[in-house]
Amino acid sequence: MMATKNYVAELNEYAQRNRLKLKYEYLGSDGPDHNKVFSQKAIIDGKDYPKGVGKTKKDAKLKAAENALRCLLDGKCQDLTENAAEASTPAETDINFICWLNEYGQRNRLTIKPMETTRPGPNNAIPWCSFMVGDKEYPAVSGKTAREAKEEAAKLVYDIINGNKTTDTADENHSDGSGQQSEDLSENVFDLCTTTKNLTVNSKDPSLVETNYIGLINDYCQRENCSYTFVDEKICGTPDKRQFFYKLRINNKQYPVGKGKSIKEAKQSAARQAWFVLQEQSSKDAKDKNVGNGQNEMPTVSRFTLEFEPLEHLGKGAFGSVYKVRHKQLKIEYAVKVGCYKEKSLREVRTLSDLFHRNIVRYYTFWMQDTGYEWDLRDSYDRDSYDSYASSHTADNPETKFLYIQMELCAKNTLRDWIDEKNKESEQDSKRREESLRIAQEIVCGVEYIHSKNHIHRDLKPVNIMFGVEGEVKIGDFGLVTSDDDDEERTVCKGTLYYMAHEQKTERKYDRKVDMFALGLIFFELLWKLSTYSERAKIWPGVRRQMFPEEFSVTFTKEKQIINSLLSEKPEDRPDASAVKAELEEWTQIFSTQKASRQENQTV
Length: 604
Ligand SMILES: Nc1ncnc2c1ncn2[C@@H]1O[C@H](COP(=O)(O)OP(=O)(O)OP(=O)(O)O)[C@@H](O)[C@H]1O
Known about the structure:
ATP-binding, phosphoprotein, binds adenosine-5'-triphosphate, alpha+beta, 604 residues, Protein_kinase_ATP_BS, EC 2.7.11.1, Kinase-like_dom_sf
């Protein structure tokens, strides 16, 4: 193996020689666990140098140092910035496709089943493998060994799901299509889209599953027998920061322009814009039709009960009820939120459809119906009789529409339950501290992502934080989400008073830092045992003003420092999510090392 040059030492030397102030900034990690990449950048005398990406933090630092040296000594900064986007994407050859596929199955609650066979070859039997993902079978592939066939088959599924190949082009017996249509089909991952309606994967990041709006438009146009084309509007920006603009034309009607960093992203965004306009239009048409008919005479078929089997009433919030359901065809369980439709609720769904992150409850789709859904709570424990007690119903006002939001199903216990359980335990132990640090890190990752998309959650609290199948944190309830535009006037006192920042209670101008204040309180609650409500009521006002129980400050010195900064009265003094994430990551590492050495000492 070739030895790697120690660029970090070299850059240090360079900085010392030239009396420059050198530091590194950790920029976070990206990608699923099996294929994580880390990023760091060098900052020299306040100037940022191109980020370095690597499979470990150390590699990333080395790469960052190398990049800075190339800028400083060879003047090659431009090339590096242009390549930065590529470098941050994990190389496909590094991906363990079987592992990726298993994670994909877990995330989407699809069973993954390899089907291994042999087929006669010229000399001996050749191993073949294909995968069943949910109820869809992917094409079979051969390999020199059974393992190789399995890996190749998993890679094929990866390619198809990522839109690198269509199922048609991947099929052994199929010849390639040509022209515009085949190009569109490969973007749409058409086969998958028609089975699951809207699941595809962002080709850049296999950990994120996005709604395929081009697929939905394709579906819609086939159903309505209309044609669509993407219109190339313009391209802006410098070569390293290109912005593409596309819009959709459906039967000569033009829809709003969508933009993106690639043509594909811009087309998806245009399809998303068109999809929302179509939804709004169809709701308006239905309303006009009802008004025209004088009354809502025809009973409407409920898409909800047609597609899903309601299994359980999970709870009720301000917007409506949430049900655990099973998709009748896919046999996958989801959560569906049902409430009365208001213009504003559609805006919220629009925001939600923009968020795809491991630590955020995954949104699948939404639709509107004339009928709502009622579950008689008295009998909800009686599964067999749900039909007689749960029913679709129309509202008293015939103009009322109901909005259904299909989401990922999370575990029943929320973070509130987790905290309550921990508070029942007798001792304040180090296991709670360790778990709390993991949970806090995941919450802050989700919040960092929400903020990066220019949204403010505004209602972060333990009941709105749920857990996924692997116990990972899932931030939910985006009922109060709003955009973080600088000059927007805000509604005063939206959210839950207990976790609300001072400025959110009283001021019309506040920003994303209100979420950081709530995070401070949640971190405190994660760590500190509060046995009774009265104990909590006694210390809570103090904690909100950065006054902590003495024992807390002694036991959790580092955590207290982070929480203290999050609870700063002035929003500008609160750190942003990425800074807290970095601090927590660093502290977690130190804490684990300290714990390991303590354990070692005990055994010696
Ligand atoms: N995706 C989901 N998976 C599982 N349970 C869910 C899901 N979304 C919501 N729930 C549960 O459904 C219940 C109602 O949730 P919802 O988000 O509507 O309201 P809430 O958070 O209780 O109140 P509000 O919206 O008024 O703040 C809660 O108990 C919540 O834990």
